[in-house]
Amino acid sequence: MKIGYARVSTDEQETHLQIDALKKLKCGRIYQEKVSSAKADRPELMKLLDNARKGDVVIVWKLDRLARSIRQLLDTAALLNERGVEFHSLTENIDTTTPTGKLTFHIFAALAEFERDILRQRVNAGLKAARRRGRLGGRPRSLTEADLKKARALLRSGDYTKTQVAAELQVGRHTLWRALSQQTPR
Hints:
It contains eight helices and five strands; from the N terminus they run E-H-E-H-E-H-H-E-E-H-H-H-H.
């Protein structure tokens, strides 16, 4: 039986492209999930591995849908091989039933991990460069220094509670409390 596996990393992404390709190949069963491959807990992949039997073929749209590291990919492929289950990746056109397919599998796995490492390096370098330029990233502050000055004055008057001051400044009370505890009075 042909068994498909489709995965996306976040809830904002969709598996439609992968599912369509797997259905076109007439997969008898398709497992799909929305979870990062970096996470060890992938319930649908575990179900697939538990249910795959000798003679089955596990099909993925692309190698990186199955695993993110060479070690993870090789471990999964070894597990499938031990059970007599074949593996096919559509995008890379890898079929582990042949020696050439096995070699190609290992080469593409190494390249996929290399590409991921290069991307991570670029992202980290970009973040460091932005920090050097004074860009910290993250969400902008909800309260300006003027807002905090007003909040302190209202609280010192004794006529307002922190909850009332937060409502006046149109922020949540926890936001106000956090901002006041992080700022030193001036």
